[in-house]
Amino acid sequence: MKRFLVLIIVLFVFSCKPNAEELPVLSYKINAEGEKETYAITYSGFTNQDGEQVLTETIKDKIVIANFFFTRCPSICPPMRTQLIEIANEFLTDDAVLLISHSIDPKNDTIDILKNYSDATEIPSSKWLFVNSSEGNTKQQAAQFMTNFKPNETGTDFYHSSYVALVDKQQQIRGFYNILIPEEITRLKEDIQKFLVSSN
Amino acid sequence: MKSKVLKYSVLLLLVAISIGGIYYLNLSNRHKAIIKTRVNHTLGLVDNTWNIKTENNKTSLITPTLVVDQIYKSMEGPKVMRSFQIDSRNDDLVWITSFETKAISTNEVDVLSNDYVCHTNIDFYDGEHYARWNLNERIGQHYPRLTSMSNGIENYEFPEGFGFPVFSNENLFLSTQTLNHNIKSDPFSVKHKVTLGYKPHSKTMKPLQSKTVFVMLPYDAKNPFQGPTENNPNMCLPVETGNHSYQNEEGESLTGHWVVFPGKEQYSYDITHQFQLKDSTTMHHIATHLHPYAETLMLKDKTLDSVLFTAEAKNYTDKIGLKNVTSFSSKKGVMLYPDHNYELILETNNTSGINQDMMASMFVFLYDKEMDEKLKAFKAKK
Q1: Domain B210-367 classified CATH 1.10.3470?
Q2: Which site among B34, B379, B381 would you substitute to test the A interface, given the most A Cβ atoms closer than 10 Å to its Cβ?
Q3: What is the pLDDT of residue B23?
């Protein structure tokens, strides 16, 4: 009877545990042969707001929330920034969680400007990286994150997505979330939590 | 000392409640509905859960309860939104072939009048969708709306052999909003049930690409809600949605949502730039979105001076609402050309005697040759 009770309790605990496995691996492309090819996110040629290189090693064993932005952005970036500050604060003490914002305007977004932008968030730079690279390299990085950016007709803004990507500790994309929608922020937080619980 | 703290706390609370109350009372119907829906769902005052099922090649989503407590015109009513997947546990290529939206009772069984459906939008995430197929240049080109159903067009299916290909774990996004033009009685509750029909992958299926074209009209950006304007004496913005306002290359403000005054009116708008056709292709389906008091929306090839399709709207005569709007559907298709100009012509007849609001859009589904080539090469897992 005792054993049976223990079994029931164990089953109950495991059934309540959020399951990160149920989140699909979304980082794959259909290659020229028509086959699915999964890939892991890599980093090369990026520098963060502290002037340090950001490499694939930087995101090893991290749960990454990634987006693309630019500091002069008049449209979607300010509300996205507000939401990301909230997420960064919520997971401030979880060392595994790392935010990375990629500038799509490297000509203007110098390291100094990124540093000022980062300081204004009051989030430690170890928790939230603001990174830049050449336009070509940033385009390639955007392609890894399954997104794109381009200047609008007037040159005052860029098309860029309001979605953020969630990357697991194996550097695979496991979710996309429209950060401008409250319900999507809730879903993102829940999914981050699933990975945190799974890795504990 | 304690009683002073208590006194000032109560005073502060009363001031905060008064300011909040005044602020709330000055909000538009639309913003009040957002707040009321959020409070209802957050506090669990009504059923706040989604019921999502995928079975028999259909994915259905039943919304949380939406409380209709007053007249809600277009874009004003309680709404809910969420992302979803057809089947998040599998990664199979499937073809979406049909759409349906309906208002149902909170028991999730009884079907109610579709007078309570303003619109149901289904979007895809273009980054995820196109990047998988290495079509990155398409990302951000168009608003990634797959379709929209509304009062009058509540369901449709593509012609046989056509569909929109997605992977079953791909993110789709649903937004659905209530409408109530007529019932002024006590508050009542509804849910929306949205169903997507799909088929398993088959090499014989042909992919469609959705392009949204819509009438846009100029307005005075400095005084948007106080029309009429000098540029066009017949319009101004009815609600402060922002989503429907645009600036053209000349910096002129245009809106896709405007006011129609009592009487008959005709509006036309060149939509060539909205189509952004790179190559000639065929058009196979059109779902039209109109508001009450619209009579016809015509899609015209201006270059050939030829009418390609006219959506006819039947209005109720005993209440406000659209009974039916006709759709275009053709397996053979109609040719569209990148060097032709296209136009939408809308005819309205506002018989209500008071101002009404209007939108006129077509969700046009075109054969997607580039995607078809990718799909032909695709090797599905066995």
Answers
A1: no
A2: B379
A3: 80
Domain ranges of chain B: 29-205, 210-367
- List the single residue in A30, A160, A181 with the smallest CB-CB distance to B133: A30
Cross-strand partners of B318: none
Burial pattern B105-123, b for ≥16 Cβ within 10 A else e, equals: ebeeeeebebbbbbbbbbb
pLDDT at B382: 58
Least Cα separation, residue A33 to chain B (angstroms): 7
- CB of B136 within 8 Å of any CB in chain A? yes
Model pLDDT for residues A85-136, shown as the tens digit of each residue = 999 999 999 999 999 999 999 989 999 999 999 999 999 999 999 999 999 9
- Give yes or no for a cis peptide into B262 (omega within 30° of 0): no
Residue B335 neighbours by CB under 8 Å, 6+ apart: B280, B281, B282, B283
Judged by a CB distance cut-off of 8 A, whether residue B169 touches chain A is yes
The CATH class of the A21-199 domain is alpha beta
How confident is the model over B28-82, as pLDDT tens digits? 788 888 899 989 999 999 999 999 999 999 999 999 999 999 998 878 899 999 9
The domain ranges of chain A are 21-199
A149, HSE (Cβ side, Cα atoms, 13 Å): 28
| Among B177, B176, B151, B183, residue whose Cα is nearest residue B70 | B183
CA distance B268 to B286: 18
Ranking A104-118, A178-192, B233-247 by mean pLDDT, the lowest is B233-247
- Contact list in A for residue B379 (CB cut-off 8 A) is 33-35
Its ipTM equals 0.84
Identify all chain A residues contacting B135, using CB atoms and an 8 Å cutoff: none
What chain B residue is nearest to A165 in terms of C-alpha separation?
Answer: B128
Residues of chain A contacting B140 with CB distance shorter than 8 Å: 148-150, 159-161
Chain A: residue nearest B140 by CA? Answer: A159
User: pTM for the complete prediction?
Assistant: 0.85
* Residue partners of A29: CB distance under 8 A and separation at least 6: A36, A37, A39, B131, B132, B133, B134
Mean pLDDT confidence for A64-72:
94
CATH number corresponding to B29-205:
2.60.120
